[in-house]
Write a structure and sequence with these properties.
about 0% strand; globular
Length: about 575
């Protein structure tokens, strides 16, 4: 980090905070503060929706996911375009026509207060945890790599977000997210072309892609029916569809983005924009991760990308064994370069037998590379069981700090922190709104003025911001950050989506049946998650977590219908002969 990096980083973050506060001064009624003035254009909505989902986790974790596992994660998003169409046709018109500020207001109109409150509470639990993780994600990585104090970073990120979110509400979140998305995508494009420019002179994009393909990093679609596989075509268009429906259709952090639209059409166009560009954006971010993998085929890379893990093992009794592994890794990297040169030359000469031979050598060498890295993790774990050995989330930040020139480092760190602020702001905005309007206002018998409700929303937003910082301070890594956030969502989203689907399409089902079905379903999903996913290490679980979204939706619908039919049967008058 040079002086130029610090200037770019601090200048970018301070500009976002100041711009958000300045653009939204005077938001002193519920319509302006919670509804964003109901005047947002479709491009603001579309960018805000994308920025809300694209947290720092996306830009830290996704490239590392691609580095280790390839492009298959993009299947997670396959159900998203269809989800956008369904939300545009069903959810958006209902929300706008009812003139609601939160998604859960609709549930009281359709069912009753307790069902609305239950759905709101489920949202608060899930999104409250996620808000803490979106602060923790960049903080833990930056603290490990730069040596900054973790809790200090949590507090700094949290305070910056709290300032403009509490000050300006929904509009502050929306107007700042346009700038944040511009900064984010600019940084990612610069990184992509930087990697291309720093590969060997004879390696162009086509050859780089062929090298990635030779190691199965470009295997995008998996049509297998294995329920244990996390990402397949089928889990993407079913579990991914239900997750997207729940997230964009019922999660207030997203619903609040398009409820600020000037009209139904503006909201729909914003969601269509997201449906069209979200998959290409995620594809490109994964592709950056694949290019980082190609870059490290020609350049030295650490056995473990977490510097704290390397420092711990080198100061332990396992240091000599680790040094032996490092020496073997250096020899392996030289062998890779030779095999890659053979592969490149054979491609140019169109000697396809030689291409296949070199490809097999590359595959074998990368298998040895994986074996070395697994052995390194085992040594690190022996040295210090408290150190995180899974280094997927450290790959991209290691590349940034060790390879990008001065100035670009500051820009990419600004990208990461901007993304953290963007998604956290949406979450805090939604958490404060739900607490104030769905719980406090609805259960408060005393009638308050508009200004008092705005004040209460600000107070609750502040409280949730402080809680998010506390959660971040006590959080821990689990497998991979981007997967952790989606796992937490999958535990709750299916159930909540099922409640909304019952409200939309099953008019004969009443509030009591839905309320008790939702409680029972959530308990069942907890049991399924614990017994089939949580107690198994990553990659060995008995059920891919995306399926929880479909199972939760199907269960709550089936149980609610059964409860309703049984209740009607009990109340049915006897037949007089």
């Amino acid at each position: 980090m040079g002086i130029l990096d610090w200037i770019i980083l601090s200048g970018t973050l301070l500009f976002i905070v100041a711009y958000g506060v300045w653009k939204t001064r005077g938001s002193n009624n519920v319509s302006d503060y919670v509804g964003g003035g109901k005047d947002a254009k479709w491009w603001t909505i579309g960018l805000s929706v994308m920025a809300t989902q694209a947290s720092a986790i996306t830009f830290l974790s996704t490239p590392g996911q691609a580095f280790h596992s390839g492009m298959g994660f993009v299947q997670f998003y396959l159900g998203l375009p269809l989800a956008m169409i369904i939300i545009c046709l069903v959810f958006v018109p209902i929300y706008h026509n009812l003139k609601v500020y939160t998604a859960y207001e609709f549930l009281e109109n359709r069912f009753d207060l307790k069902t609305r409150s239950l759905a709101a509470i489920l949202f608060l639990i899930q999104r409250g945890l996620a808000a803490g993780i979106t602060i923790y994600a960049p903080a833990i990585i930056l603290s490990a790599v730069l040596g900054w104090d973790l809790r200090t970073l949590n507090i700094i990120i949290g305070i910056l977000v709290i300032i403009y979110t509490v000050s300006g509400g929904t509009k502050a979140v929306s107007v700042t997210q346009k700038q944040q998305m511009f900064i984010i995508m600019t940084g990612m494009f610069i990184t992509f072309f930087f990697i291309l420019g720093h590969l060997p002179a004879d390696i162009n994009l086509t050859k780089a892609m062929k090298i990635a393909g030779a190691t199965d990093k470009l295997d995008i679609i998996d049509f297998s029916f294995d329920p244990k596989s996390r990402y397949t075509f089928w889990s993407g268009i079913t579990g991914g569809l239900f997750l997207a429906l729940a997230y964009f259709g019922t999660d207030q952090s997203q619903v609040q983005r398009y409820l600020s639209g000037k009209s139904i059409r503006e909201s729909q166009l914003g969601l269509v924009f997201n449906g069209i560009f979200k998959i290409p954006m995620q594809f490109f971010i994964l592709l950056v991760g694949v290019m980082v993998f190609v870059f490290y085929q020609y350049n030295p890379s650490p056995l473990n990308f977490n510097p704290a893990a390397t420092a711990a093992v080198m100061q332990s009794g396992q240091s000599k064994d680790y040094e032996i592994l490092q020496e073997g890794q250096l020899e392996l990297e030289e062998a890779k370069k030779i095999a890659l040169n053979k592969f490149s030359t054979a491609l140019e000469l169109k000697e396809y037998a030689a291409v296949e031979d070199a490809k097999q050598q590359i595959i074998n060498l990368n298998v040895k590379d994986s074996t070395n890295r697994a052995a390194a993790k085992a040594l690190i774990s022996e040295a210090d069981k408290t150190i995180e050995t899974n280094d997927k989330d450290y790959v991209f930040i290691h590349f940034i700090l060790n390879n990008l020139p001065k100035g670009l480092i500051g820009l990419l760190l600004a990208v990461i922190l901007s993304a953290a602020m963007s998604s956290t702001a949406s979450e805090l905005n939604a958490l404060g709104t739900i607490t104030a309007l769905d719980l406090y206002k609805r259960n408060n018998k005393k009638e308050l003025s508009e200004q008092e409700y705005v004040k209460s929303t600000k107070i609750f937003t502040l409280i949730w911001g402080i809680l998010a910082i506390v959660i971040a301070s006590f959080a821990n890594l689990f497998d991979n950050l981007i997967q952790l956030v989606n796992i937490i969502g999958s535990i709750f989203y299916g159930n909540v989506l099922g409640i909304f689907l019952l409200a939309f399409f099953f008019k004969f089902v009443k509030g009591n049946a839905v309320f008790f079905a939702a409680i029972l379903t959530q308990l069942i999903v907890f049991v399924l998650f614990y017994s089939l996913i949580f107690i198994y290490p990553s990659g060995e679980e008995k059920l891919g977590y995306l399926w929880l979204n479909f199972i939760g939706s199907a269960l709550v619908i089936a149980i609610a219908m059964a409860f309703e039919l049984f209740d009607r049967f009990l109340k049915k008058p006897p037949i007089n002969n």
